[in-house]
Amino acid sequence: MEYFLYDLIRAFWIQVVSIFFREIASGNAHSVPKEGPVIFVVAPHNNQFVDPLILFKHSPRRVYFLVAASSLKRRIVGFYGRLLRGIPVERAMDHKKKGVGMVTSNSNSDTPDPLRIFGLETNFLSEFQPGDRISILSGKHQAKVVKVISDSELLMDSEVSSPDVIAALSSQTGCAYDKIPALDQKAMYKSVYDRLNSNECIGIFPEGGSHDQSKMLPLKIGVCLMALGASADNPNLKINIVPAGLNYFHPSKFRSRAVIEFGNPIPIDPELVEMFKKGGEDKRKACSTLLEVISEALKQVTLNTPDSDTLQLIHTCRRLYNPTKRTISMRNQVELSRRFVKGYMQLKDNAEVSAIINRVLDYKKKLEYYGIRDHQVEKLHMDRFDAIKLFTWRFIWLVFTGSLALSGAILNLPVFIVTRIVSRIKAKEALAASTVKLKATDVIATWKILVGLVFIPTLYTLYSILYVFYAKNFRFLFFLSPSPNSGFLYSFFQGILLTTFISLASLNFGERAVDIFKSLKPLYTVILDSDNISKKIISERAELSESITQLVNELGPQIYPEYFNKSSESDSESAESSSGIRKRTINKGDGNPDSETESKSTRFSVPSITPKFLSKIRSVSSFDFLGTGTDKIRKLRKSKDENSAEAKSETPEPNGGFFSQIFSVSNLFQVGWFDNSQDSNLPELAEYSKSIKYSGSSYSTDDDASFSSATHSRNSSIDSNFSTDGAKAFGMSPLDPKK
Predict the structure, then answer these.
(1) In this protein, which residues make up the domain named Phospholipid/glycerol acyltransferase (predicted)?
(2) Before 44, cis peptide (omega within 30)?
(3) From CA 300, how far away is CA 303, in angstroms rounded?
(4) CA distance 134 to 155
(5) Secondary-structure breakdown of the chain: helix, strand, coil percentages, each rounded to the nearest 5
(6) Is the pLDDT of residue 159 over 60?
(7) Among the CATH numbers 2.40.30, 1.20.5, 2.30.30, 3.40.50, which is that of 94-180?
(8) Which of 347, 304, 377, 328 is nearest to 552 (CA)?
(9) What is the crossing angle of helices 75-83 and 444-470, to 10°?
């Protein structure tokens, strides 16, 4: 029964987090052991109670998280935490108390002891016990109390290193302090051991509390005590530690994106278990060794930068680096950013790297000045007439989709207002109570979800009651008539369903409207560009992209020698393969060697629009299709007529013509070009890419299938680059300039 409740509640929260986030990608989930005890170590803890939901969604096994006992005392969090079989953990920080009096390091001795603390009007004997911790100056220095000498004197186990704390302790008035008691965690460890002995999985955030920094906090030793302690108690227990890295594009933003990457399992070394059993210094060494292994494993699946500015710089460089001219999956974007971080941290003092960084910073400032994002720069490459046509067409669709989303937006406007206000208030409270948070953005998403779970049902109930009174004389709605004894309930649930349907439909169309609105800025810039600013930005970006790509190719082997060696071998094989394809293409030209030259006289040839072709491309973005303009539609129709014989030989065209075939695609508003692998689209499109011919451009068969949806890559400043090379082949890109 407990598993049934767990699975039911887990499924509920998976749906909640799937609504909050637009996309949650995962990687390497197949590496999670299918059986046996597993400890998931998850980092960074940047999104409070949302973080475990991401793991719930993509973990192939049931996971039971360690939850702060103070959190389980909350009404909603505690209710669901107990149903999800969370393991309560008493945190010493939750029992922190403000100390009486002040503390100082001043003494009458000529040889002051850096481990000795003196009190001014303090009661150390009644406040502290050996093993408790003293927190000085709002946690800027914490140390374990070794000995309490008197009410005004005690010994710590570590010296003060913070200049601020040293200055405060040296003052005549001293500084404030807090007492953090030592807690008995035997009950918690017993619960963990029982779960592991039952071959279950537990989840833990080794950083401790949540935070909003761009790097991981120092890991706590608790996970090592659990893993080594359970292995020492049961020698037959084969525990695996699985690192899981969380990467958010905008953690607190509704309908943003996230990626979770699983690392390879880490088995417990029997030698460390034997050292742990010995206790004392050997035990500490065993825990430190395992903690270092876990830390390094987490660094392989997370992004860690000194600050947020560096993180944004890394994302910009990653977008500019584009050697293959293909759009890559979201998971690969994160992996590439991770490699850029490693390279930047090792080579940031290099003169060439510093010069490139300065150029990138100047480029970013220029984009900020003109209000353009990097992924929109390629959209500036079009003439003014095309920009006007596309701007007009997209503006029409903006009005259309916006009007469809308007009703749901009005219905849910109170939700957005209330969740925003409450989450900001809670963020301020969390920031005031924390020493590690920068802006406390890590709690915003949690409170948006919690407030929404309470407020949305309440609001929809109110709407349904109002609907009942409105629908008294309109029982023909939905072509159904209520029975005489169930009129109120029938109308009430009808109102609930209608409100929910309108909200979900408005969410869908609203996203599309926002995407279209964001895409208008570069078009607006092109239309009003009188100083050729757009061409200058395009040229600067192209030069930067080429410089970064060359620099990575030069310096990359120093950091990833095996990867670059393998990449070089793959490139040579691809060159041979592509040359063979080109040779076969030339042979198709009626045996005339000039046929390839003749093919350059036309921009492209479009493959026949058949069900077979539609099954290959899987889905088409409605906005890319509808934004092509009438001239491109005519070209597509003309090409379809030219290839009608081929289309009929494959399969008869269904009634309704071209539009019926395009709109028969079930996933009209989504793009399915790519899987998790950057190159996964090549085999799928290889069959019909051979029929595409291009005129005097730098395009090759290695660069095909670089499609991108207007709805997929505009929502975030750190989304992937928009690539139109492949889309040009089909005349479907709304951003393709006339040549």
Answers:
(1) 39-249
(2) yes
(3) 8
(4) 10
(5) 55, 10, 35
(6) yes
(7) 2.40.30
(8) 347
(9) 100
Residue with tokens 């309908």: 255
Residue 347, Cβ density class (10 Å: 0-12 exposed, 13-18 middle, ≥19 buried) = middle
Q: What integer pLDDT is reported at residue 564 of this predicted model?
A: 60
Strands in 322-372 per DSSP E: none
Residue 712 sits at the vertex; the CA angle it makes with 708 and 715, to the nearest 5 degrees, is 130
Q: Which amino acid, residue 682? A: L
The per-residue pLDDT for 559 is 80
Write down the pTM of the prediction.
Answer: 0.72
Largest CA distance in the chain: 103
Is the CB of residue 430 less than 8 Å from the CB of residue 440? Answer: yes
Cα 540 from Cα 553, distance rounded (Å) = 20
As a whole number of angstroms, the distance between CA 400 and CA 512 comes to: 10
The DSSP secondary structure of 606-625, one letter per residue, reads: PPP--HHHHHHH----HHHH
Band of pLDDT at residue 570, cut at 50, 70 and 90: low
* Residue found under tokens 């061409």: 535
Residue with tokens 């070794």: 146
Share of the chain above pLDDT 90, in %: 45
pLDDT over 50 (residue 491): yes
φ, ψ at 174 (rounded to 5°): 75, -165
Report the C-alpha gap between 195 and 201 in whole angstroms: 7
Give the end-to-end CA distance of the chain in Å, rounded to a whole number.
67
pLDDT tier at 474, thresholds 50, 70, 90: low
- Give per-residue pLDDT as tens, 312-330: 899 899 888 877 667 778 8
Average pLDDT on 648-662 reads 38
pLDDT of residue 475: 52
Q: pLDDT, tens digit, for every residue of 343-373?
A: 888 888 889 999 999 999 999 998 888 888 8
Which residues neighbour 327 within 8 Å (Cβ) at sequence distance 6 or greater? 673, 674, 706, 707, 708, 713, 720, 721, 722, 723
CA 389 – CA 403 distance, rounded (Å): 21
Closest C-alpha among 518, 514, 515, 257 to residue 406: 514
Question: What secondary structure, in 3-state letters, does 66-115 show?
Answer: EEEHHHHCCHHHHHHHHHCCCEEECCHHHHCEECCCEEECCCCCCCCCCC
| Secondary structure class of 97 (helix, strand, coil) | strand
Residue whose C-alpha is closest to residue 66's, from 203, 263, 258, 225: 203
* Domain 2-90+187-299 CATH (choose: 3.40.1130.10, 3.90.180.10, 3.90.1030.10, 3.40.50.300): 3.40.1130.10
Q: Where are the domains of the chain?
A: 2-90+187-299, 94-180, 308-380, 385-527, 570-599, 601-739
Three-state secondary structure of 485-522: CCHHHHHHHHHHHHHHHHHHHHHHHHHHHHHHHHHHHH
Residue 42 has pLDDT above 80, yes or no: yes
Question: Can you tell me whether residue 433 is helix, strand or coil?
Answer: helix
Query: Rounded to whole angstroms, how far apart are CA atoms 324 and 552?
Result: 13
Q: Are 704 and 358 within 8 A, CB to CB? A: no
Determine the 3-state secondary structure of 271 from DSSP.
helix
